[in-house]
Amino acid sequence: MRIRLRHLKLHVATVAGPFGAELSFKEGLNVIRADNSSGKSTCMKAIVYALGLERMFGPGNHPPLPPAMMTLIEDDQQETPVIESSVYLEFENHEGRIVTVHRKVAGTSERDWRLITVWEGAALTNPGQYPSRELYARDPGSATREDGFHTFLEKFLGWSMPEVVRFNGEIVPLYMEAVLPLIYVEQKFGWAAIQATTPKYFQIREVEKRAIEFILNLDAYKRELEKQKLAQDIAALEEKWSDLASQCDLMAATEGASIRSLPKHPTVEWPPQVAPYVERYSGPRTLSLNNSITEDQAELLRLENEAIPAAEQVSAELTVKLRKLREALDENEVIASDAAADLEFDGGEVRSIDARLDAIADDLHKNQDILRLRRYGASPNQHQGQGSCPTCHQSVTDSLLSQTLEQQVMTVEENVEYLNSQRKTFEHMKENIERALQGKRLRLEALEKRSSELRSEMRTAKQTLVSDGRAPSAVAIRQRVVLEERIDKLTRLSERFSAKVAGFAELSASWRELQAQKMELSGENLTATDKKKLARLQALLIKMESEFGFDSFPPDNLAISSQNYLPNRAGFDLVYDVSASDNIRTTAAYLLALLEISREFPTNHLGLLILDEPRQQSLSWNTFKQVFERAKSSGGADQQVIIATSEEQARIDYLANDPEIHFINFSGKVIRRITAQTSEL
Amino acid sequence: MPETIEHLLSGISADFVFKARPTSLPPELRPDWRISVLLLILKITGRAGKASLKKLHVLGWVIRHQSQRDAFLQVLAGDVPADSLMIRFDPALNRAVEFAVGSKLLAFERLSSGGLNIVLTASGKDAAARIVEHQDCLVSEKAFLHEVGKISEARVESILTWKD
Questions:
Q1: Short-list A608, A603, A574, A579, CA closest to A591
Q2: Does position A309 have pLDDT exceeding 60, yes or no?
């Protein structure tokens, strides 16, 4: 048990004197009988208000209580203005600790209606001096700040609210108001379906499911939350990996090289079978970086072992060399020019795809405009939209083309789908071409670089040919210098690359861990204990439905869905499938089952159930009696059920003779003028 | 043996199945879109919700694409000669007008000079207002028409005949 209501007091000060209502509650079944519109629902709502949980009724900025407490109260066929009103509630928790709360409802006094006074004692049933505190409900910080009422209430009730996700991805604690519909069924709308009055404006994802998970203390949700966190971690790691890969690519590209064999997505093993390596273009060849360096070093060594020749010694071979260089340059230029044309062509392809994509986007936008117009009911084309001519009523298609064409035309929705798939196709094509383009660009750059190198060599050769025969060959010198520089640059690149690539080892290890966690968490969220609880819930539900006279189909066909934990039949939610009175039976049975299951399993249920006017419209008298019978068992289990009803007094006051039922009857208004003799406790 | 079609097909044991699939349609050929645009043209650029059929064709043609809208505005501003515009008379627009008249959104008005005016009826005005009210529909089209403003029939004529 987490809460036991003990005493409720409403106080309304009016121009014509004080009005009020008092209700005492006991363990087990409490039945409050009063005529329609006499104020009993006001009392039920006031309980919620006193507990600071009125946001269950909506986000409004004033107390959601009827005019009788806010503005005008009826007294003997006359309406009297309300000066001030407030509510007091005395209640107890599972530790036996009793508190009394007081909250203002209406009135011009300075006191803020969001402020709740908490007395540490039974101030209503045992008036006296008790230490008190003032706490705020409704403040944004109310659930997290020290002086917030909700913080106090959660602790008092022993409720530790779990974290849930909002539609926008934000993590917030599950609001108590969202759980309340499983404990309090409101008169007007609460009987439409189980959890019908769950507030939606908190924007919590799957809020009804979360509420039941919490009340039943199912483990399933914890697993779900862990799965979601894990998914986020996985996505983050993939991004890091992709980031590092891009950095490596960039680093190589600046030296006219590219990385090969680098996995685009995280792998569980590092290094992979074929380790990533750098490749560069050396003229028309591609060489791995290491091979390139080795080759250069060998060449340098060979040159160093030769003496630098004098210019006149080399002039003969230089002339030949110059001719060869000329030929190599010409050849390279041809290849480069082809490569440039190829690149240009691909660029043209990309441009034409872009044009196509623009046209598709434009068409999509216009089609969506049509859908918007139709959705708003602003489309001027009502007749034709229904497929018929406004004048002669022949059938027409949704197009302005000649109506004699046999061809069937897509609906606008189909067209949108079609355009979307076209867009994806072209985007995909564009991606492919751009990737190829990248490679071609690098190749062209390498070719242009080569041309430029060849020209330099030619210049140096010419220089040597016209220089003083005894001077050392500039070509030979240049050769050596160029080689040294290149070896240096490439060696540095190799080092930097090794350093960067080492980062993947760590990422890969993290990835391994995450994948292992993913495997552990895979599979159903419901644990064995969860399933036992749900099975028992199902059994209780079926039993009660039989007792209550459920007759839309045999109650044995009822099941508890493992998707939303609600009653269903053959996978379908019941609400539309059953009669109105069966709907009410189901709601009562389900909530009573939740109450009873808390006696057998550890749950977060408060051991309290408030049913306001269960005998809606057509519910049979027999069912009504059975509900009482079932609810009586709460007494022996240290739980509490409060039923408010406007059933005829003559019909129902036999309950007063039942020792297990605390029966309170009001022959007139519940909220009435206070005189010396007003008390029917 | 020559590879005739019959020879090739004889090797395939399955039947050919032809499925008629619906064809995609440019959105400007949807009555919803075209009639909405017509209503907007009449409401925003027409004098008292009226315009000649010629005007509807001219504006209805250039309104369809951003490049055409921009070109038309440039002609209006005098930055560019009118002969750079290629305006076509689109039978689909006539059909849209007929449907709209059938739905009693528009009405024909014969002029003494022999010309034909298109006029917004009362329900046409309502329908146009509804379209204007929803600010996320036909945004660029509305913006263009507001830029064009209450353009006169004479101006439209001069643009069409390149005398602008």
A1: A608
A2: yes
ipTM (interface predicted TM): 0.89
Kindly state the helix (H) or strand (E) to which residue A479 belongs, with its residue range.
helix A474-521
Question: Which helix (H) or strand (E) segment is A662 a member of?
Answer: strand A661-665
DSSP B15: P
Residue A423: closest CA among A356, A352, A366, A369: A356
Chain A residues closer than 8 Å to B128 by CB: 380
Q: B131, A373 in Cβ contact below 8 A?
A: yes
Residue A261, Cβ neighbours under 10 Å: how many?
12
State whether residue B134 sits within 8 Å of chain A by CB. yes
HSE (side-chain half, CA atoms, 13 Å) at A630 = 26
Q: Given the structure tokens 């009639």, which residue do they identify?
A: B35
The nearest alpha carbon in chain A to B96 belongs to A400
- Lateral strand order in the sheet of A558-560: A558-560, A567-569, A572-573
User: For B59-113, how does the pLDDT look when each residue is reduced to its tens digit (9 = 90+)?
Assistant: 999 999 999 999 999 999 888 888 888 888 899 999 999 999 999 999 999 888 8
- B24 contacts A418? CB cut-off 8 A: yes
Which chain B residues touch A398 with a CB distance below 8 Å?
Answer: 25, 30-32
Confirm or reject contact between B131 and chain A (CB < 8 A).
Answer: yes
Contact A314, A464 (CB under 8 A): yes
Q: Give A392→chain B minimum CA distance, Å.
A: 9
Bridge-based pairing state of the strands A277-282 and A285-288 = antiparallel
pTM more than 0.90: no
Chain B partners of A363 at a C-beta cutoff of 8 Å? 26-27
**B23 and A380 in contact by Cβ < 8 A?**
no
What are the angstrom distances between the C-alpha of A315 and each of A90, A308, A459, A643?
A: 113, 13, 14, 115
Q: B49 CA to chain A: closest CA distance, Å?
A: 16
The dihedral built from the CA positions of residue A149, A153, A156 and A162, taken in this order, carries a sign that is negative
pLDDT tens profile A244-261:
999 898 888 888 888 888
Smallest CA–CA distance, residue A377 to chain B, in Å, is: 9
Contact: A369, B20; criterion CB under 8 Å? no
- A390 and B104 within 8 Å at the Cβ level: the answer is yes
Q: What's the CA dihedral at A171, A172, A178, A180 to 10 degrees?
A: 140
Q: What's the rounded Cα separation, in Å, for the pair A435 and A442? A: 11
* Model pLDDT for residues A193-219, shown as the tens digit of each residue: 899 999 988 889 889 999 999 999 999
What residue in A sits closest to B128 (Cα-Cα)? A380
Q: Do B99 and A382 touch (CB under 8 A)?
A: no
Q: Among candidates B24, B91, B98, B84, which has minimal Cα distance to B61? A: B91
From its phi and psi, is residue A287 left (phi > 0), alpha (psi between -120 and 50) or beta? beta
CB A210 within 8 A of CB A164: yes
Longest CA pairwise span in chain A (Å): 135
Q: What is the least distance, in Å, from the CA of A665 to any CA of chain B?
A: 56
| CB proximity list for A618: less than 8 A, separation 6 or greater | A580, A581
> A380 vs B127: CB contact, 8 Å cut-off?
yes
Question: Six-digit token pair at A614?
Answer: 């269960």
Q: Name the residue facing B27 among A370, A379, A382 (closest C-beta).
A: A370
Which alpha helices (H) appear in A158-198, and where do they start and end? 176-179
Residue of A nearest to B132 (CA): A378
E strand segments, A437-494: none
Smallest CA-to-CA distance from A534 within A228, A181, A222, A215 is with: A215
Q: Do B137 and A381 touch (CB under 8 A)?
A: no
Spacing of C-alpha A564 from chain mean position: 17
